[in-house]
Each structure stands twice: as structure tokens, then as C-alpha cells.
TrEMBL record:
Function of the molecule: May play a key role in the regulation of the intracellular concentration of adenosylhomocysteine.
Keywords: Cytoplasm, Hydrolase, NAD, One-carbon metabolism
Residue ranges crossing the lipid bilayer per the database entry: none
UniProt: NAD(+) binding residues: 149-151, 183, 212-219, 235, 338, 345
Protein name: Adenosylhomocysteinase
GO cellular component, one term: cytosol
Amino acid sequence: MSKIADEKLAAQGRKKIEWAESRMPVLMSLREKYGKSKPLKAQRIAGCLHVTKETAVLIETLKEAGAEVSWSGCNPLSTQDDVAAALAEEGTDIYAWHGLSNEEFYWCIEQTLNFKPTLTLDDGADLIFTIHKKHPELAKEIIGGTEETTTGVHRLRAMGEEGKLLYPVIAVNDAETKWDFDNVYGTGQSTLDGIMRSTSVLFAGKTVVIAGYGHCGRGLALRASGLGANVIATEVNPIAALKATLEGHRVMKMDDAAKLGDIFITATGMKDVIIGRHFESMKDGAIVCNTGHYDLEINLNDLESLAKTKREVRANNEEYVLKNGNRIYLLAKGRLVNLAAAEGHPSEVMDMSFANQFMSMISLVENKGSLENKVHDIYAEQDCDIATLKLKTMGFSLDKLTAEQVKYLTDYAAGT
């Protein structure tokens, strides 16, 4: 069973998936390896993750390893309808289409639970939260789950610390081969891609205000600077703010940055980062967008209340004319601009993130019954194996320590 936008788009979607496969050698090599041993045989995986061509490669790899899969999108605007059609045509149960209402979004999640999953795979933890809030009885059959985002991991850790998590979850987001690459290079490139597609604006000479200087914010600053923009970072964490300063960016409060910015990008995972008073002090023509998982970082109610007119001027670009006469351009309705207005992260970087998802599914099965009901980090060995495999597919190799060098590492008597 599936519910998608248009089954006629399947052929177009299949071409996209095949392109992604050609860019994701790590995941494809894992598909070949585990397609023989079928370690996920008899497992039922419910997934809630952006339906993109890269996700399709992950889904079909999980199936090749023996799993049954039922899937929903994790954001109302991120589903690529042609990819969803291609997956449905090949027999994947998928409930996702671009432009879901909030009610439809949760309806789709509910459908993926009908086959009583034994594993969950999440991006934002909406699937896990739905199970805990509405279907706790399903947790008895669930071996474990994975979580892809910083926001989701933070909330699940809090649940685990309070003893309210009903099954173990692996923090895929916290793998070095995920957040030091996907978050930095993926978000940095794909977010700017989304902004350019929806505005065609020149970055050179612009002042770009980045709210949040974590891994994602750092990647945004790196790419914006590379295009000739001047970067201002806003932060609540002094260490992150210091990093931004020493990497050449100005750091200030949003109240001050709002008066200077030409383009604003939120990447915090926190609500109300840009609110009414910030809109009121922005320049005429300011562009505002979000690349955090949820659409609460920009207070849209405040923007609506300040506006006297609103119209769509380009795809994924709405012009709000404020009562003071200034124009504010909101991209992708405050949703993830890199997925709603572009295609998400490049396949090459998602290769490592989704290899971690795949291997974590296998790890949960192998460790069934031995993991506490809390959030677990990925094994360091898995991180290193994926990094090594990625380097190999890129044509690079590593030096190896000699036996004497290994001995020297722990020889406390060696001195100087």
C-alpha cells in the first residue's frame, strides 16, 4: 500500500535514483556485501525521513539486506514526488507527497506503523514521538531505532535520562562521519543552493546573518564567505561564538544583526530566533530563511501580523510588505530551505550518513536485548570503517603505524 502524488512520475524518479547510486559508492558496496547474507531478514523498518533520491538508495539497500520497509516523509515540503513514485512502483510502502498539511503529515506516519515495525529510522524523531505518545504498545516489539538530526537527538537524550524512552536509539547524527561532513559540507552547499534557486541573488558583497554557529552554521559561513559574502554569526554559546570570531566573522546579538543583514539563515533548532522586533528593524528587501529541522525558528505569526500585503513572487519565495513599507522575502515558508527549495544534500555526502543508518540497523539487530533504553553513540570502529571505505572509493589511501610506532604510543618511559 502507498499514497503518493502521481504514479506517472516513476520513470523520472528512477533516473534520479540511478544518478544518486552512481554518487554513493559506500552504500552501494554495503548493499552488495549484505545483499548476500540478509542480516535484516524478517525485520520490519518504519522510516520517517526526507523522501529524496538519496533516501531511495538507502531504502532499497535496506530491502536488499532483507528488510520490509514502510516509509513517510519527515517534512511536509521535502518529498520529491517523482522519487516517491519510483519507490512505490518497485513495491515500497510509501506515504509521502510534496505539500502535506500538518494533519496529512501525521496521517502518513500512522500508516507506517500499521505493519508493527521491529525497527524505526527517524529524522527529527516525529515517528518515535508518535509511538511513545499514541502507540506505546508497539514498543514491545521494537528492537531499537536511529535518529538523524541534532534536534531529535537532544530530545531523545532528555527522554532517556528521565527513563521515558521505551527502546534504545542510536544517535546517527552524532557520528563524526555524519555531522562533521553532512552537517558542515552538505548543509553549507545545499542551503545556499536553495536560496539561489528561489531568489537568484548575488552573494558577493552581501551581509549574511547566520543564527547558530554549530556544525551547520559553520558550513554555511564557510560557503557564504567563499562566495564573497560578509558573515555575521549570532550565538548563545560562548565557545561557538569564539570559534566564529577566530574564523573571521563578526559575532553580535540578533537585535543588532537584524539592522545589518541582507540574508538571514537560521540553523539553531530553537524556536523564536527571529521575531517581530527583528523584522521591524530589517532592511527593505531582506531575505529570511531557515535550515533547521522545524519551522519554528522564524516566528511566522509575528511576520504575518506585521505585514499589510503578502504575495508569491517566485517559487518558494513570498514577499511580505510590512506596515512600515519595507519588504521581507520569506523562503520556503520557513521550512528547510535546502530541501523545500532545492534537492537537499549532495549524494556524495549523504553516502556516509546513510551508510551509518544502514550499519546501525544491523547493529541494533545484532545487539538485540543487550542495549539499555537510552540514546547510544555509534561505535568508533563503525565511524572509522565508513571513513576508510569512503576514502578508498575516492582513490585515496592511508599510512599505517608500524609495530614500533604502536608500542611508542603507550611507552610512558620513553620520555624525550
